[in-house]
């Protein structure tokens, strides 16, 4: 059986189970039988997707059971939050494979440190703090390494001559899905022009609909500072869109349908390896609260472009995470 030195585990799989305080002492086998805590009835299906910070009357029971060593309870607890963590990561790092890796690492950190959760904040706040700290410090993504500015992105779009898509019969997916992929890639590239803290504030506040107080708790800053970060992100992002994006200003020539063909020609859009459209569960705006009351009518249009983006899922993340947990269930 692997051993621990303090909180350092001898194998990566064991690390997923060595939970300081929560699973006392060294490694502890996660029980397949329920602990004494009352646990809500479990379903084999995925939990219903909820708004990212919505109160969950069952969460306290799942959390108590997970901390007591009940693996199915831990499974449900993390599955409830996995899609939103993945979607936060995807909007932060741009590439799907990097977002899946980040999501797995975030959830493993949550498992590892679950025993340190003292209940002084909501579990969702604590989990998103782990996610935010990881995403603030993770290695620069391929897109970030380019240090792209809004001016750079504008020039790239101008240099992409409008091109018709190939005949649909020669493609593995339809034109509609390709155009949607191009649109999502483009607006995610806009996010990459913001610095990491502004990007996080925008995703949490404008896209996921967290209040200033909730966003401030997650970023561990004051509500005034969170609102300032969000205001700057809106100013820079929406100013660029107003000058370039045909979705919000019909006077702009840029059109997703024409750019999709250009993106394919440039190698930025691969029908075989879509980044943003697989695993669509719902539109963000159908699940998350909004902050539209803070915006004028023109900014509403800009914000709704981002809130219409999909909440995607990455089931492979959970498959790999559960394999790591199972591999650590050693006698």
Question: Which regions have little confidence, pLDDT < 50, spanning 5+ residues?
Answer: 1-37
**Using DSSP, what is the number of strands?**
4
Q: What is the H/E string?
A: EEHHHHHHHHHHHHEHEH
Total DSSP helices? 14
How much β-strand is present in the residues? under 5%
What about the largest sheet? 2 strands, antiparallel
How far apart, in Å, are the first and last alpha carbons?
Answer: 7 Å
CA radius of gyration is 21 Å
Strand arrangement, largest sheet?
1-2
Please, what is the average pLDDT?
A: 84
- Structure class: mainly alpha
Textual characterization of the structure:
The protein is mainly alpha-helical and 331 residues long. The protein has a domain at 145-311. Helices cover 53% and strands 3% of the residues. The protein is built from 14 helices and 4 strands. It has helices at 12-15, 59-67, 71-93, 96-112, 123-137, 142-145, 150-159, 175-192, 196-207, 212-219, 223-244, 256-266, 297-307, 315-327; strands at residues 4-5, 8-9, 280-283, 310-312. It has a two-stranded antiparallel ribbon with strand order 1-2. The protein has a two-stranded antiparallel sheet with strand order 3-4. The radius of gyration is 21 Å and the shape is globular. It starts with a strand and ends with a helix.
């Amino acid at each position: 059986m692997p051993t621990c030195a303090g909180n350092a585990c001898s194998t990566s799989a064991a690390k997923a189970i060595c939970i300081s305080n929560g699973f006392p002492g060294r490694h502890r086998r996660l029980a397949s039988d329920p602990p004494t805590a009352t646990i809500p009835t479990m379903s084999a299906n995925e939990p219903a997707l909820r708004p990212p910070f919505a109160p969950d009357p069952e969460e306290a029971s799942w959390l108590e059971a997970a901390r007591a060593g009940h693996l199915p309870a831990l499974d449900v607890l993390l599955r409830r939050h996995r899609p939103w963590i993945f979607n936060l990561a995807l909007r932060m790092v741009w590439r799907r494979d990097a977002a899946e890796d980040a999501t797995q690492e975030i959830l493993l950190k949550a498992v590892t440190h679950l025993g340190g959760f003292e209940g002084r904040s909501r579990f969702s706040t604590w989990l998103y703090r782990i996610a935010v700290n990881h995403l603030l410090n993770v290695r620069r993504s391929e897109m970030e390494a380019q240090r792209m500015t809004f001016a750079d992105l504008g020039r790239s779009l101008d240099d992409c001559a409008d091109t018709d898509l190939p005949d649909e019969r020669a493609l593995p997916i339809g034109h509609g899905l390709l155009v949607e992929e191009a649109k999502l890639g483009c607006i995610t590239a806009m996010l990459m022009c913001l610095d990491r803290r502004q990007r996080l504030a925008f995703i949490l506040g404008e896209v996921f609909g967290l209040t200033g107080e909730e966003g401030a708790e997650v970023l561990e800053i004051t509500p005034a500072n969170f609102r300032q970060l969000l205001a700057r992100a809106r100013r820079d992002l929406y100013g660029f869109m107003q000058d370039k994006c045909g979705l919000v200003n019909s006077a702009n020539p840029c059109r997703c349908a024409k750019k999709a063909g250009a993106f394919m020609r440039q190698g930025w859009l691969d029908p075989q390896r879509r980044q943003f459209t697989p695993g669509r569960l719902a539109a963000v705006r159908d699940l998350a609260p909004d902050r539209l009351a803070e915006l004028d009518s023109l900014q509403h249009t800009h914000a709704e472009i981002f809130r219409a983006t999909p909440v995607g899922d990455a089931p492979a993340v959970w498959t790999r995470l559960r394999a790591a947990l199972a591999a650590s269930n050693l006698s």
